[in-house]
Amino acid sequence: MSYPPQLWDGVVRRLAADLPAFTVDAWIHPLVADVEEAGLRITCPSTFHRERLRDRFLGQINACASAEAGGPVAVELLVADSAPSPEPARADRNGVLAPPARMQSVPADRRQHPGPRPQRPVQRAFSYTFDSFVVGPCNALAREASYAIAHGNQANLNLLYLKSETGLGKTHLARAIVRESDAGRARRARYASAETFTNEFMQAIRGKQMEDFKRRYRRDCDLLVLEDVPFLESKTATQLELFHTLTHLLDVGACVVITGSCLPRAIPGIDARLASQMTAGLVAELEFPDARVRRRILRSKAASGGVGLPDDCLDLLVERARGNVRELEGVLIQLVSTASLLKRSIDIALTEAALRKLDDNRPVARRLAARAVIEAVATFFQTTPEALASRSRRRDVLVPRQLAMYLCRRFTDAPVAEIAGHFGRNHTAVTNAERVVSRAMLERAPLRYQDEALCERLDQLEQSSTGPHR
To answer: Which residues lie across from 59 on neighbouring strands?
Structure first.
């Protein structure tokens, strides 16, 4: 049976509709799929990744592929090192590499009428290795410590906490640790987000399967990589279970790597023993890249996609794109994709246009006072600013409070500490609220409607007080 070249793209779309965004990013996006006569050949970045995919997602992948193709599809899982070597890629006149042809035979009708294949000029799939991590003064300690954990180079280093703002590379290092530890050492590695750990723990309690849970995270685990620990805010039972899990792992000589956007003690409602335990090892912080590191990041990502960046365009990107690594990658994707779609060479005009898109996507500076935003949210939810600032965790108070913090960040110039002060909290509560609301709005339509209604009111309030904003 012949399958359409777009089969895998359809499978990914279906999976993205069923799975959390983090799961898709962690386990589906790193895959490379080839559509062949026999079905789908899916190449995984590591043996660990392949086994996790087979255990947890293969059934869904099979179902999505069958639904997309209109019939059964055979799915084969491979590991990158065992995959056939690709032919050298050839660059087109725009400096973008064309995808190499498959080495095995292809039916004649498909050779004569090759369908267009979407180019991926800047890929993320192969980026989670230490070799592809650009090192500079902003992240050197974090990189070296992560490498030592993965390769067992420091006998006395078995607990590492990676701390950084979003998009600066802590997830890159976390996944590189799992990938290279699995490839180079006979260790049983387990990678999970704090959200996954929490969900599996709660499911184990409800299903009376705690022994299976403890086996996975304690007895059958030599390396635990746990991401995004601020998610554990005020989750008392999960914190207690994690405390005992970490205690067991460290007592038996296993290694633990934890990541977070803030230090554990700054997480609201964190257990003091757990916070102390998570930072008892080495704490390594990743900071924003300077100009030299930004240049190396852009060169590296462009080269990985076979893109030739003119020096003047690179200089402009380095000067203007001063955000985190994710923003650098975003503006590069915007630039290269535009050049490829329009069949134009990359030049200063296209680079300027891509940078304007980056500026347009950044939050617009607003001139409302934080107090005015809080009062508008309180009125909308028929409550008071004092109630939003209370210690209540009831849903009818918690959701408006988080939404008020989120909108204060969008509609005011107030610093995070000032916004937090209006609610009697620290700055971490505000950054966590931004993260929670941003994620929830992707999943909950009612919250999106509330956000739209409040934004309309705040726009009107801003215009009535200061006139139309720029």
So the answer is: none
